[in-house]
Each structure stands twice: as C-alpha cells, then as structure tokens.
Amino acid sequence: MKDLNRLKALTPGVVYLAQKTFLFFLTAIGVRVVQQLVLCRFLAVGSFSLAQTLYWTIISRVFYVILQVKIRELWNKWDAASKGARILPVVKGRRIGNLDIMKKVGDMLEKGYPGDFLDEIEADLGRIFNTRGLWEDLIFTSSPDYIKRILATEFDNFVKGELFQETMYSVLGVGVFNADGEMWKFHRRLTRPFFTREKITHFDLFDRHAELAIQKLKNRLLAGHSVDFQDLMGRFTLDASTDFLFGTCTDTLQDDLPYAYSHLGNQSTTTQTRSSRFLEAFVDAQFLVANRGNLSSYWPLLEIFKDKTAQPMQVVRDFLDPIVVKALDRNKKQSLNDPRNSKEGQDIGDNDTLLDYLVKVTNGAILFVEVARYPIVIRDEILNMMIAGRDTTAGTLTFIMHFLCLYPDVWSRLREEVLHKVGMSRKPTVEDVREMRYLRAVINETLRLYPVVPYDVRASIKATVWPSDDPTQPPVYIPSKAPIIYSVFMMHRRKDLWGPDAEEFDPERWLDERVRKYLTESVHIFAVQCWSENLLGSTGA
User: Fold this and answer.
1) Which of 467, 523, 454 minimizes the C-alpha distance to 493?
2) Between vectors from CA 191 to CA 187 and to CA 197, what angle results, nearest 5°?
3) Which among 258, 248, 302 has a CA at the least distance from the CA of 280?
4) What CA–CA distance (Å, rounded) separates 282 from 44?
5) What is the pLDDT of residues 272-319, one digit of tens each?
6) How many folded domains does the chain comprise?
7) Residue 28 belongs to some domain of the structure
8) Alpha helices (runs of H) in 152-250, residue ranges in sequence order
9) pLDDT digits over 223-244, tens only?
C-alpha cells in the first residue's frame, strides 16, 4: 500500500522524466560498452572522460530520434506507394519541429475563434493534411466522407489510442469516454439498457429543476442584475443529470448565482458551499485535462512539480465516493434481505437510477476481480456520464438562448409553436416534441453552428487508404497509430456543403428546399446524428 501511495504521489512530469532518464542511462551504457570494446581494444583509443561519455550519449540519442523519424517516414512512403496512395501534404512551418504552427493552433484554441488558422491551411493544402508537430503525425480533416469513415464505416479501425487515454486518465479514469475495444463494448453493454424511452422522458424530474432555474433567473433579473446564462444552464443540467443518473442531486441551483463582473463586490460576500466547490472543481478538471492535448505526448513537461488535475479531482471524488459507497451498501442490504436480487440483479427497477443499475450489473462482473477496483469503475462511469449529461445539454441550451436573443423573429415563431402545441401549463410529451417541427429546426440549426463536440480525435490502429477528396489525385495514405483530429464545427460551416449562407443562423434551412438540396444528398454533412448513434453503440451509417 505504501508503494502504491508513493506511485500516486509521482507527478506526470516526474514519471515522464524518469522514463526518459532511464533510456538516456541505457544509451550511456551502450556508448561506454562500444568505447571499451571497439575503440580501446581495436583502435587503441583511450577511455572517455565523463564529459565525453555524456557528449556522445547526447549525440547518440539525437541521432537515434532522427533515424527513427526518417525510418518511419521512409516506411510510410514505401507502404503508401505499394498501396497506390500518396502521403498527406504536410504543413510547412518556419520553426524547427513546426513549433510556430503548434503555437498558432494553441493560441487559436485559447484566444481565437475555432478554425480561424486551420481555414487558411485547408485553403492551401486541402481538406485533409498533416501538421507534424515536433515530428509526430497529427492529421486534421473536416471532410464528411472521412468523418463518416472514422465514426461509422471504419469505426473499428479508429480508437482513442494510448496517448489520449494517458492524457485523460486522471479525469476520465476507466470510463466510457476513455475506453477502446472490448472495454468500450463493455461500457456500452453496461449502460445502454438503462437509457430507454421511459427513462429519458422523465419530464417530472427535469421540470422540477427547470422551474428552480427559471425562478433563480427571475429573481436575479428583478433585482436589476444580469445573469450568466451559461453558468445557470451548467447548474441546471448538472443538478438534473445527477438526480437522474444516481438519485442524489448536487443542488448547485440552491446556491447563489455568481454576479457579473460589474457586481464583483456583491459576489465577494457569497459563501462557497460544498456544491459550489464541486461544480468549480468539476469544470476546472475538464479544462485542465483538455489543454494537455495541445502539446501531444510532451504535455507532462508542464506538470513536473504537480499534477494540475489532482486538486480539483480530489474535490470531485470526495463528493462522488460517499454516493457510490452508499449505493453499494444499499445493494448489499437488498441482496441479503431478498436473495432473488442477486439472481435477477440485471433487471432495471422502475425506481432504479443508473448508479443502482451499475451496482447491480457489476456485482458479479468477472472483468473486475480486484475489490478495490470495483467502486472505482462505477465512479468513473458515472463521472463520464455526468460530463456527457451536463456539458452537451448546457452548451446547446446556452447557444439556443444566444440565437433567440439575436433573432427575435425566431423567438416569436418558436414561442407561438410551443404555446399552440403545449399551452401555458401542460408538460410536453414525446409526441409533442416530435410534432414541433420548428423547435427541431432551431435545435438542429444550433447544433449545426455549435456542435456539442466541435473537435475530436481518434487514432488509426492500422494503416489505411482513403479515396481522395480531389478525384484528380491518388488516394491518401493514413499511417498506423496516427492521431486524426476531425472538426464537425468546420464541416458544418463549409459553404460548398451547406450553401453560400452556411455561416448564417437560419432554422428555415431545415424546412425549405435547402434541406433537400444539401442535406438529403449527403446526410453525413450533419454529423451530430452520427456522433450520438456512435456514443450509444450504433456503428451503422
């Protein structure tokens, strides 16, 4: 146990440097052996000093890295040629290792607008290219055909990959969003039966939290203060999702809403509760782990002295662990009181939450033999579901409100449809939502311009060949283990796919001739449906 605690105390940077130091030490031994056996014995050259050994070790490591890169490049060119394909065009930066390109992309993600810099590269190199930051392949595409292959037709060949899993592990753990292969299929089998129509249309639960969110909004506006709507939606979706998923609400809406920057004096008097600390830590951990991806495999170098996610994740786990333990104890008592529960544990009860269901179905899972690992798997799973339940819905609701404020005519027409179909007080049904075509058009148009997953990454398991977007060019070669960033955000704004008004918000495009002219001809230019089916387990087109 002490050794395990010491291992946990090591930061990502220390582990990374230890691995590199070990390789450097092995190289130094190799240099010394070569010097003793070859130079001294056959060439009668004197022994190296420590400084000379260090010098030649550094030279050897640099030469090894260069040789490794060159061999990989030559192999890819040979393999591509043997398959009748061409190597992807590579971005040419002005600094060694394309460091300037990496910096521009990082600045775009942190300070700019998504896709600004990448648009320029696409105009020059085409819809798929290789950025080759620090001599590591990093492919980018916004082509619907290639995104379709990644998410559907060639789904089994594209995985999160080891780099992604190592980068995200401190937050996502062994949950579904950080799993590949059989583990991913296990997660899918584990959770999919719970998300039935009866469960996801639990309107009473969502209505209760919506009423509280609306009341909070009214109170703050009546007091003459503005409201951070994104924060409000984040609280609403987190409370609703935790209530739905494991029957214990985070109650972040019970706390005072934050004030705008113009009223910071009022905010300073607000007492931070346990729920507020959890919400802040929950958001911080996701932000920190997302930023790691900008440096590819070199991200641990920025976390030498501490794991930046450790502190916020400790707050998150302190909040979740008692909930998981309580569910485990409850299931144990139920099994003792009624032995049939252990045999029929995989049945979903009317009042079961996802957490209750996970405790039941994993109770006899052979995959997780270690007792200490069992609650960790459940905690990671519900945390992954919380991220999906909060971020996707909160982001979409925020952008919908953003557009409704900018386009009062859309607001009026949407309100008229809702009042006509549902009225002022009745709760909507699934049939009501299905029949409100303009509501669906507003949601679709919002998701088109601001998809819930604007950028995502997969890695190819084995080398593959894709047809070229340009019919005059040979097919393109995708190397094995190459990470591919695909941008639904940029694809949804392409004028050649959506028309000259592609960057304009217009729900009418989903109701008039444009839907037949553009979308019907190529359904995969709207990737939200494909992505959601993939998440739930469908790999069909």
Assistant:
1) 454
2) 150
3) 258
4) 64
5) 677 778 888 888 888 888 888 777 788 898 899 999 999 999 998 888
6) 2
7) yes
8) 161-172, 181-191, 197-200, 203-222, 229-246
9) 888 999 999 999 999 898 888 8
Q: Report residue 353: phi and psi, to 5°.
A: -90, 175
How far apart are the C-alpha atoms of 105 and 111, rounded to whole Å? Answer: 10
- Gap between the Cα atoms of 265 and 259, Å rounded: 9
Tell me how far apart the alpha carbons of residues 142 and 122 are, in angstroms, rounded to a whole number.
Answer: 9
How large is the C-alpha radius of gyration of the chain? 27
Q: Give percent helix, percent strand, percent coil of the chain, each to the nearest 5.
A: 65, 5, 30
271 in a structural domain: yes
- Of the residues 66, 90, 114, the one at which a domain ends: 66
Please state, in angstroms and rounded to a whole number, the distance separating the CA atoms of residues 132 and 146.
19
How far is residue 438's CA from residue 414's CA, in Å, rounded to a whole number?
Answer: 6
Domain membership flag for residue 46: yes
Structural domain boundaries enclosing 212:
193-394
Picking from 394, 420, 437, the residue at the C-terminal end of a domain is 394
pTM of the model: 0.84
Separation of alpha carbons 12 and 388, rounded Å: 26
CA dihedral 220, 225, 230, 234 (to 10 degrees): -30
- Which residue has tokens 């995200």? 168
Q: Which two tokens stand for residue 333?
A: 């008592």
- Judge contact between 147 and 469, C-beta under 8 A: no
What whole-number distance in Å separates Cα of residue 101 and Cα of residue 335? 58
Residues 6 or more apart in contact with residue 13 via CB below 8 angstroms: 300, 301, 302, 303, 304, 305
Residue 264 domain flag: yes
Query: Helices 354-361 and 181-191: crossing angle, nearest 10°?
Result: 120
Q: From residue 244, give the alpha-carbon distance in Å to each of 173, 179, 240, 277, 434.
A: 22, 23, 6, 21, 22
Question: Collapsing DSSP states into helix, strand and coil, what is residue 128?
Answer: strand
Across the 541 residues of the chain, what is the mean pLDDT of every consecutive 10-residue run?
Answer: 49 90 88 74 66 86 88 94 94 83 76 81 91 86 94 90 89 85 77 66 81 93 91 91 84 85 54 76 86 81 90 89 81 65 53 77 49 66 83 91 96 96 85 91 95 89 92 93 92 94 96 89 74 39 30
In the structure, how many helices (H) and strands (E) does the chain have? Answer: 26, 8
CA distances to 10, 147, 158, 220, 488 from 76, rounded to whole Å, are: 37, 22, 18, 60, 28
